Each structure stands twice: as structure tokens, then as C-alpha cells.
Amino acid sequence: MEFQNYPIPSGVHAVPSHKLDLRPDSEVDETLDNPAPISDEKNVWFFWHSGYANMHPYTKRNIRAWHRRFSRQGWVIRVLDRQASSPLNVANFLDISDPGTFPRAFVDGTIGGEYAPQHTSDLVRWPLLLKYGGVYADVGLMQIGDLDRLWSDTIGNPKSRFEVLSYNAGSVDERSLTNYCLCSRKNNPLFSRCHKLLLELWAADGGKTSTEGMHSSPLLKGVPLQGQGGDLSFEENGKRYEHEEVTQMLTDYIIQGQVLSLVMGLVDEEGGWDGPTYSAEHVYAINYMVGSQLINEVTAWDGKKAFALMSLELPKEGEVESEEQEQARVIVERCLQKSFGFKLAHGLILRVLGDTLGSLWRKHKGSDNVPGTYAHWLRYGTMYWCQDSVPPALDFKVIEPFKRGPLLREK
């Protein structure tokens, strides 16, 4: 991005240019296609089945921004894939034939269902973090806050009590970490148990090829289904999906989140695990609404409204700011001041809520990157600016467990 004279919100400062990789996109892409060898735990992992070159333009911009912001601070960004000849094939980083790492459906390439790419992506997250450490993020996550500072203050600091960093979808009393941003060092005990449980769910009934029905597994009994707090229903192709069915669909879709919740709420004396205590003492959980969904909160999850506002041009010199421009300005300023990231929503949520900002940026190529618009101002800020402070952690207390008993057996 060339220099733009956008206003810097209060509480935000410009990043010194020597800390940014400001080379042309083509040169940054060459680095992303040929990342440095793994040398420490400052890794940012992404996954796109067909590889970085085949990603949508707006998500490529997300990845480049991660690299431009943090590579000069020692972070290496890698977009892994499943392309046979690719040096970034998952098989070059993990043993894809190991049943202790991947379920049979991943090994055989038989993962099916409408959301097979998402579930393939889910299955590489914990193995990568357990073996190498670092950050796993969805390609749709725009990073805003100072990842390097927060890492250095928490997970990367031997004196810190924190071992896991993520967003928490819900109140301080809920255990609902999002899987679109997971951070830890190698061999994390929470993620290790989560991974074992996820593999057990995939192994049920002789081996699953999708996550359909996993919400009803007795191993997850006691954990509230996803979306319980809302009134979710929708109609599709003449069929009405009521709230209970939608929560089951959402839970199957985000089964990795359900697994996280169970393990955080598990007391397994046989396995030497106290999830409620571990979570209260070692998980740095950021409020997900302010931390990563602020645009959706401000627009009441109206994707068309968010897209229209972000596509507006800022008022030119001498022009009076319109009501819509004021709304868009407030969104950008609040995101740059308060949010650690912004997750562009895709997948099953489109069936429930309709188009999102992310799906509309996908449909309208380049609309997120038009100079002079609020979308471009936001993108510019995520690359060139940084917040003065880091987001606070929710004050987790020890909660009553969801389950008492062995991780991989019923009570």
C-alpha cells in the first residue's frame, strides 16, 4: 500500500518503517511461497487446501499484512496446503500416516460433506502447534493488535503464568475458545488432550468421514451446544430449520470448539488433569466480540450493511460527514483502537445469517482494497499502525466441571 493520509485514531501509533516489510506484493508472495526453515516457536500457521497462490485476493491481503507487520520481529508466516508437489504440503511438516496425528479420513483423503475443506483445516491445527508451537489462524482473520508484544508478555515469557492465547466466545463464566486463533508453545497440555479427544470422535463408529452427528457423542455430554444463547432458525430450499436443529448443525460444524470446552471443563483424576483450574490459571482469553467481531456487533450481524458502510468513501476536504460515513468511521476507529483482530465469517454462518462482510468481499473482488474507502482505511491501519496497549484477558475463575472422569471414556 502506498502512503495514505488517513487519520490515526487515539490510542494507536504508527509502526516505524524499519519494522515493516514494505516490499512489493510480488516479492512478499515469493517469501510466503518459500518461507524460512523452522528455527523457533514464532510461527504463524495457516492452511488453504490448494495453496496460497489459489487463495481469494482479499484473504491474500490478510496473509501479506501478517507478514509485513511481524516478519521483521522474527515471525515466519506459512500457508500450508495438500498439493502433491508443494514444499508447503502438510506432509512435509507432519506425519500424515500416523493415526496418533490424523484420523483415517484425513490420511485417505475421504473427508466429505459440504464443509470438508474447513474440517481438513481443523485437523492440522493442534498437530502443528503441538509439534512446533506458535499461532494458528484462519486465513479470514485480519490481525490488528500487537501479536509480538502480547506473545512476549505471555506465552513467550517464561515468567508468565499464561500458556494459551485465544478468543473466548461468551462471558467470563463460559469456556468457549474460538478455533480461528489458537496460540501456544510446543506440547501444550490443554491442546494435547483436545487433540486426543478430537481424534477419538473421528474414530467413532469405525471411522468418520465427516463431523455430522458428533454433537451427540457421550464424550461431549454436559457441554452446551453452540449457539444456545440465541434464537437461531432459518429457511432454505423450502425447508425450515428450527433452533434445536441449527444448534446441532453449528456444533457439528465447530466440533473443535466443543472439544476445547469439554477439556477446559474436565476433571480427569486418572489422567492427572484439572481443566477448570488450568483454564483459570493459564489461559489468556480475549473477549471475542470486542476482540474479533466488533464490525458484526456494531452492524447487528448485517453483512450487507457492513459491506455498504465499508465501501463508502471518506468525505473529501470541505465535505460534511454523512450519517452513514459517521457509522463507518466509528467502526474503523473502534476496530483499530479496541480489537485484537477481525474474523471475516464464512461457512455455515452464511446459511443461518445470509451474506457477511467476508462473503461480499469474496463476491466483489477488490472491494476491500479501494483507496479512499473505509475498508481501505481499516486495511491500511492493520498494516502500518499498532495499538498502544494489548487487550485485557477475561478474569477466568475456576468453574464447576462439565465432566468428571477419563478423557476418552464416558463418566
- The span between the termini is 56 Å
Uncertain segments of ≥5 residues (pLDDT<50)? none
Query: Number of DSSP helices?
Result: 16
Helicity, as a percent range: 25-40%
C-alpha-based Rg, rounded: 21 Å
* Mean pLDDT across residues: 95
| Number of discrete domains | 1
* Major β-sheet annotation: 6 strands, mixed
Shape: globular
- Helix-strand category: alpha/beta
Number of beta-strand segments: 15
User: In which order are the strands of the major sheet placed?
Assistant: 3-2-4-7-6-12
Kindly estimate the percentage of residues that lie in beta strands according to DSSP.
5-15%
InterPro entries: AfumC-like_glycosyl_Trfase, Nucleotide-diphossugar_trans
Protein name: O-glycosyltransferase
GO molecular function, one term: glycosyltransferase activity
Pfam family, one: Caps_synth
Describe the structure.
InterPro entries: AfumC-like_glycosyl_Trfase, Nucleotide-diphossugar_trans. It comes from Hyphodiscus hymeniophilus. This is O-glycosyltransferase. GO terms for molecular function: glycosyltransferase activity. This protein is an alpha/beta fold and 411 residues long. The chain has one domain (28-404). It is 37% helix and 14% strand. It contains 16 helices and 15 strands. It has helices at 25-33, 57-70, 104-108, 116-132, 147-153, 189-203, 243-253, 255-264, 275-282, 288-292, 294-298, 303-311, 323-338, 349-353, 357-363, 374-384; strands at 12-14, 43-47, 76-80, 134-137, 141-143, 164-168, 177-184, 234-236, 239-241, 266-268, 273-274, 283-287, 341-343, 385-387, 403-404. The strands form five sheets. It has a six-stranded mixed β-sheet, with helices on both faces. Strands 11-10-15 form a three-stranded mixed β-sheet. Strand 2 (43-47), helix 2 (57-70) and strand 3 (76-80) form a beta-alpha-beta unit. The mean pLDDT is 95.
